[in-house]
């Protein structure tokens, strides 16, 4: 473990420097939260005076203001001079909520609302507007003693946002205490790509921070923070308006803003907040959901929300948004190896663009159709599948019902999302590589024979394990991977893809045949991606990445619109990741005996043994071997050699092919070794 | 003799406070207010209560003005005033005033003019009672401090 942890540190010079600064901060403010800078805004001078005295008793530095407009000006003039704002709700010159929105958008400070109005509607309004707390008058000293927590929490959340890694990081945080192993594994993910590595680095920093967090003064953040001044924000809004809120992606916004020093992450984070803000303005209840779907814009996947709700909505949203925004960057990053990304850059980008553009649109089916047509040769088939896909969705629930028991039994922990997440995270990390490989494989499969893919789809159901991995890979790009993967994976493309490639099998496996059709649609998305790869076989990876992301977004949409009932399913699906293996095997036998067993076994292992990845891989290989024969096993270890074999297998037997595809990824080669390495590190 | 007076005044103050608590005029928030008083702000309680009186009289005037318009009472504005009144009253621990404010606000939300007028009278009554009692308390406090100051010049 120690060796593993060192890896990121040594590789990252920035980490070391940050760490140093961190320590300095720690020394400077080891009496936190003493000296917390609080701005109190209340038109009621009685309360203002009492609060001031109370906050002084807490050893905070207090600034009071009896008018909201003056307070806002004060905040704008003295940016960075306050850590937290406490504001009354009802004020004559400016509504407290208005102030809250300004503060949230412009300076991103934690705002605590307070009012004598204790009605649920009033409190809910505060929450909707983004208040981090709502105090009911009379405010008591005990409550104020604790407000520093919001400052710390905000800081953590910011770090999360910056990393754009949603659930995974959170899980890490939750596990923080003794999750060295997990941490290491996550660090090792770097194999997936440079982007990942960067993320890891940030994680490493975070860990350092958190280690010293108690002593650290939240007010002084080590990382340079972008201050969104009014002008900057207006520039941002202008860029978003120019692009259209649905099509506004951080990269484009950044280009339009043309502000030196501003990074895509800054813009992405702000865009996320901005979208949240817009959501709040429109609909509160669905805001959270909307956030996750904000990508989609209009569609609000309540069902998804339910399932996703457990995960970080924002993270999900980020994940959803990220793929389209940063497709190109992500691709390159994800691919890690320049060669991989280089292979088919041109091809990939178009795909990405399409995906991203379509992403905003709420109708998944349409996207799928459009995508499928241009990209895939079998477009007609795909299109046909689309309508079916809707049907299949309905069917899915039933299928789920049957499957769910299986999944539950296997998953066990699946019920508790948190647990899953942690596992998933680890899994994800590990899986990412696999997923990528799978994607590659899928692409290959697709390339090989579109027709096969169609046929495969029914059989594909078995494959699920691989598909899950592919999902995660897509997710990997986004921090929230799991979330996105959940929604998408459940029904989505995987099955379709899986038919060709294993991907479909993961989510779909449970879904049933009907799902296959739907997956077919999704696959259609992926298919295009795969097609491009086929043109240039090597390039597939990048395409896959985009394709996946797109699919995810599409998936979520489809869920929402089509299957309100699916929500429970979605949950199951999520579970399915972990559980997938178990359910899949069951299904597999019924539908595709050979395939199922293979596919399922792999996923299950993944879910179960996060740390044991290497072993699991080997096991996977074995399982594959059983079903497909040597080809599958080799895939993991010998992706290159076996790829050809796998393809053949796929062609020969749809079921087999799917398995083979999963195991064998042409692109996986680069990643495969990395994965192995990571695994080794973890083991160490 | 003076020292004895100080002790007696303290006892009287405690009796008055106990009465006010018993009557539900004050609640424990007032005690928290007293705890906030320290050497950096030795007159914190009376300072805050005087601010409260000042603000409350403004609010009462406004409420009376809003209700005096027979045809067009601005109930929304009334609700905002009452909200502030509630907030400040509860913040100093004026429990009964706050409770009347709650009833008043309920009446204003129902556009119940009669109820509002009745509530306003109650509010003024409760407010006057509170003000008189607290003035009494502060006077005793002042006398106590003076008495104690005579005997123990260094104490304060």
From TrEMBL, chain A:
Segments crossing the lipid bilayer: none
Alphabetized GO MF terms: DNA binding
PTM annotation (4-aspartylphosphate): residues: 88
Location of the Response regulatory domain: 37-152
Region (Disordered): 159-225
Compartments in which it is found: Nucleus
Boundaries of every HTH myb-type domain copy: 220-279
Compositionally biased region (Acidic residues): 206-217
Record-level GO BP terms: cytokinin-activated signaling pathway; phosphorelay signal transduction system
InterPro entries on file: ARR-like, CheY-like_superfamily, Homeodomain-like_sf, Myb_dom, Myb_dom_plants, SANT/Myb, Sig_transdc_resp-reg_receiver
Superkingdom of origin organism: Eukaryota
Keyword terms of this UniProt record: Activator, Cytokinin signaling pathway, DNA-binding, Nucleus, Phosphoprotein, Transcription, Transcription regulation, Two-component regulatory system
Basic and acidic residues composition bias: residue spans: 159-179
GO cellular component: nucleus
UniProt-listed SUPFAM superfamilies: CheY-like, Homeodomain-like
PANTHER family linked to this entry: TWO-COMPONENT RESPONSE REGULATOR, TWO-COMPONENT RESPONSE REGULATOR ARR14
Family per record: Belongs to the ARR family. Type-B subfamily.
Protein name, entry field: Two-component response regulator
Automatic annotation (TrEMBL), chain B:
Gene Ontology annotations of biological process type: cytokinin-activated signaling pathway; phosphorelay signal transduction system
Organism: Protea cynaroides
InterPro entries in the cross-refs: AHP1-5/YPD1, HPT_dom_sf, Sig_transdc_His_kin_Hpt_dom
Origin superkingdom: Eukaryota
Description of its domains: Histidine-containing phosphotransfer domain (HPt) contains an active histidine that mediates the phosphotransfer.
Transmembrane stretches, start-end: none
SUPFAM superfamilies (UniProt xref): Histidine-containing phosphotransfer domain, HPT domain (SSF47226)
GO annotation, cellular component aspect: cytosol; nucleus
GO molecular function per UniProt: histidine phosphotransfer kinase activity; protein histidine kinase binding
Coiled coil: none
Every HPt domain range: 47-133
Entries under Pfam families matching the protein: Hpt (PF01627)
Cellular location(s): Cytoplasm, Cytosol; Nucleus
Function: Functions as a two-component phosphorelay mediators between cytokinin sensor histidine kinases and response regulators (B-type ARRs). Plays an important role in propagating cytokinin signal transduction.
Keyword Cytoplasm: yes
Tagged with keyword Membrane: no
Protein's name according to its UniProt entry: Histidine-containing phosphotransfer protein
Keywords tagged on the record: Cytokinin signaling pathway, Cytoplasm, Nucleus, Two-component regulatory system
């Amino acid at each position: 473990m120690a060796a593993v942890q060192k890896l990121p540190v040594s590789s990252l010079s920035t980490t070391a420097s940050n760490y140093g600064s961190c320590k300095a901060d720690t020394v400077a403010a080891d009496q936190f939260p003493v000296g917390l800078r609080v701005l109190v805004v209340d038109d009621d001078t009685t309360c203002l005076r009492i609060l001031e005295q109370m906050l002084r008793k807490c050893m905070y530095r207090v600034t009071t203001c009896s008018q909201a407009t003056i307070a806002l000006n004060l905040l704008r003039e003295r940016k960075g001079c306050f850590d937290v704002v406490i504001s009354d709700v009802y004020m004559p010159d400016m509504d407290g909520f208005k102030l809250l929105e300004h503060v949230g958008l412009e300076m991103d400070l934690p705002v605590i609302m307070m009012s004598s109005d204790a009605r649920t509607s009033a409190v809910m309004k505060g929450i909707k507007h983004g208040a981090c707390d709502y105090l009911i008058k009379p405010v008591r000293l005990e409550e104020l003693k604790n407000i520093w927590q919001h400052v710390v929490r905000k800081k953590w959340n910011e770090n999360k946002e910056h990393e754009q890694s949603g659930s995974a990081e959170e899980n890490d945080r939750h596990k923080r205490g003794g999750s060295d192993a997990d941490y290491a594994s996550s660090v090792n993910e770097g194999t997936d790509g440079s982007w990942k590595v960067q993320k890891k680095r940030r994680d490493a920093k975070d860990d350092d921070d958190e280690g010293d967090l108690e002593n650290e003064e939240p007010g002084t953040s080590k990382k340079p923070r972008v201050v969104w001044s009014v002008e900057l924000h207006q520039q941002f809004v202008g860029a978003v308006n120019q692009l259209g809120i649905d099509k506004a992606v951080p990269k484009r916004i950044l280009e339009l803003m043309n502000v030196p020093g501003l990074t895509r992450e800054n813009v992405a984070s702000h865009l996320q907040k901005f979208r949240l803000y817009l959501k709040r303005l429109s609909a509160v209840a669905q805001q959270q959901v909307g956030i996750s779907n904000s990508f989609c814009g209009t569609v609000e996947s309540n069902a998804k929300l339910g399932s996703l709700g457990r995960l970080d909505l924002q993270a999900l949203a980020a994940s959803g948004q990220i793929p389209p925004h940063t497709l190109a960057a992500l691709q390159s990053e994800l691919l890690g190896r320049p060669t991989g990304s280089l292979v088919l850059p041109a091809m990939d980008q178009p795909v990405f663009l399409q995906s991203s553009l379509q992403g905003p649109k709420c109708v998944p089916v349409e996207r799928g159709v459009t995508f499928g047509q241009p990209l895939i040769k079998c477009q007609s088939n795909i299109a046909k599948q689309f309508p079916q896909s809707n049907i299949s969705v309905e069917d899915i629930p039933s299928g789920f019902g049957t499957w769910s028991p299986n999944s539950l039994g296997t998953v066990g922990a699946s019920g508790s999302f948190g647990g899953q997440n942690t596992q998933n995270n680890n899994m994800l990390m590990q899986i990412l590589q696999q997923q990528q490989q799978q994607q590659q494989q899928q692409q290959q499969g697709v390339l090989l024979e579109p027709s096969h893919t169609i046929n495969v789809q029914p059989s594909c159901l078995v494959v699920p394990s691989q598909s899950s991995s592919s999902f995660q890979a897509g997710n990997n790009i986004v921090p929230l991977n799991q979330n996105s993967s959940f929604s998408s994976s459940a029904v989505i493309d995987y099955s379709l893809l899986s038919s060709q490639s294993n991907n479909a099998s993961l989510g779909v496996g449970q879904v049933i045949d009907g799902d296959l059709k739907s997956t077919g649609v999704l696959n259609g998305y992926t298919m295009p991606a795969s097609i491009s790869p086929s043109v240039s076989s090597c390039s597939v990876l990048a395409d896959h990445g985009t394709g996946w992301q797109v699919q995810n977004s599409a998936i979520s949409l489809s869920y929402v619109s089509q299957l309100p009932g699916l929500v429970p399913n979605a949950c199951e699906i999520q579970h399915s990741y972990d559980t997938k293996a178990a359910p899949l095997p069951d299904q597999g036998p019924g539908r595709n005996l050979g395939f199922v067993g293979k596919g399922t076994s792999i996923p299950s292992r993944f879910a179960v043994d996060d740390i044991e990845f290497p072993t699991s891989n080997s096991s996977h290989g074995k399982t594959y071997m059983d079903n497909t024969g040597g080809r599958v096993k080799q895939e993991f270890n010998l992706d290159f050699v076996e790829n050809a074999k796998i393809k053949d297998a796929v062609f020969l037997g749809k079921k087999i092919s799917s398995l083979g595809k999963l195991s064998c990824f042409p692109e996986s080669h680069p990643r495969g070794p990395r994965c192995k390495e990571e695994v080794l590190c973890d083991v160490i | 003799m003076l020292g004895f007076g100080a002790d007696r005044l303290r006892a009287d103050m405690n009796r008055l406070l106990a009465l006010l608590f018993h009557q539900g005029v004050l609640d424990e928030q007032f005690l928290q207010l007293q705890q906030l008083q320290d050497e950096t702000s030795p007159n914190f309680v009376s300072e805050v209560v005087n601010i409260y009186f000042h603000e409350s009289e403004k609010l009462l005037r406004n409420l009376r003005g809003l209700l005096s318009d027979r045809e067009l009472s601005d109930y929304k504005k009334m609700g905002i005033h009452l909200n502030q009144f509630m907030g400040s009253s509860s913040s100093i621990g004026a429990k009964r005033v706050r409770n009347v404010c709650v009833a008043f606000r309920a009446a204003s939300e129902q556009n119940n003019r009669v109820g509002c007028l009745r509530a306003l009278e109650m509010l003024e009554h409760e407010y006057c009672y509170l003000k008189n009692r607290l003035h009494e308390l502060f006077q005793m406090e002042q006398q106590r401090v003076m008495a104690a100051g005579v005997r123990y010049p260094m104490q304060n």
